[in-house]
């Protein structure tokens, strides 16, 4: 039988989840929302929101962190899905580029852009969060590539991951400037074109 503390903990967890889900919905709708709007959407009181979070920014940051986590995990799953083998630089390159193509990076960029109120040049925080998305996983990906491709030098793996991750950040800036984080097919087509151009640039070098 569930005890009173267990019920309180379960209720607290449900309220927190409701707040985060409501915030994610509001962000996805392109809204910059107030505490009252969030409370209404989550069907909780203002006080309940502040029992869980210090501010609206805290709520948005938590939602962004969850979203980043899902995208990064998908990226890593694609990278680590293949079987281990002797491997070459070409094998590692193919694995990483497949992951970049399969991951919804435009969706991630759009979500962050909306959640953080745009990527204003006067506010470095949105770009810092986006860059952190890739930098925090680069070392792990390089290690995974080295493990699964025994013939690949760890330094080569790190350089390859770094080149592709930084290239993705660069084309993201161009994509945002051209689309303002639109999600229509034209914007996604442009992303695919930029991605292929970046991949070819890294593949052939200078």
UniProtKB/TrEMBL annotation:
The keyword Transcription applies. InterPro entries: Homeodomain-like_sf (IPR009057), HTH-type_TetR-like_transc_reg (IPR050109), HTH_TetR (IPR001647). It comes from the Bacteria. Gene3D superfamilies: Tetracycline Repressor, domain 2. Residues 34-53 bind DNA. One of its GO terms (molecular function) is transcription cis-regulatory region binding. The keyword Transcription regulation applies. It holds the Pfam family TetR_N. Keywords: DNA-binding, Transcription, Transcription regulation. This is TetR family transcriptional regulator. It comes from Actinoplanes lutulentus.
